[in-house]
Design a protein that fits this description.
Elements lengths: L5 H5 L4 H37 L7 H13 L5 H23 L8 H11 L6 H31 L5 H7 L16 H7 L1
Helix pairs in contact: 2-4, 2-6, 4-5
Length: 191
């Protein structure tokens, strides 16, 4: 645990500046942790896309037809993937709404806008993949910036290596999906 005296590190820095530095460090560490979670969530969503979902024009109708088939006992893994993808992205909607400071008095158009930003199965697969790629790139960038800041903090003596290990940046609180073999979509090319 970090035990170094902070007054020596900050030197003659004004108190307001010390608070700003502390706030920046805390926010950067928090953003790095959130980026780790985003990468895991993103990987799960990408795996569902790879395994196949109903997407694009007619996706809603295909879902309803598959639900009817499921009712009669017909196995529908694409339906399962589509619904899991929608649920996975619904969590992203909540994050987007919170990021905009919304949450009370949310209009239908606000909800639709957030849903569109998170991605929904009625988009084409290519659009969803591009959205996930952009999200992944942003999360990886944030994670690298957080790690860079922590490396500098260790190098300059602001943090000990043990304190950085305790922060556990890069591991995230959300588990990465476990790939158990080729995805369903890749199997269609093998046959």
């Amino acid at each position: 645990v970090q035990t170094q005296e902070l007054d020596g590190i900050f030197g003659k820095m004004p108190d307001d500046m010390k608070e700003l530095v502390n706030g920046t460090v805390v926010n950067t560490i928090k953003a790095g942790s959130e980026a780790s979670d985003t990468l895991a969530e993103n990987a799960r969503a990408q795996q569902l896309l790879d395994d196949g979902i109903f997407s694009g024009l007619g996706a809603d109708a295909k879902v309803e037809i598959a639900r009817l088939g499921s009712f009669f006992g017909i196995d529908t893994p694409t339906l399962d993937n589509t619904q899991a993808f929608a649920l996975e992205r619904a969590a992203k909607v909540a994050e987007i709404i919170q990021a905009y400071g919304a949450g009370t008095g949310l209009s239908n158009s606000d909800r639709e806008f957030a849903l569109a930003q998170a991605g929904k199965p009625t988009y084409e697969v290519e659009t969803l993949q591009r959205m996930l790629r952009i999200e992944k790139d942003a999360a990886e960038f944030q994670l690298s910036k957080t790690k860079q800041m922590l490396d500098e903090a260790v190098k300059t003596g602001l943090l000990t290596p043990e304190a950085v290990r305790l922060l556990d940046i890069g591991r995230g609180s959300v588990p990465m999906p476990q790939q158990t073999g080729p995805s369903q979509r890749s199997l269609q090319y093998i046959k």
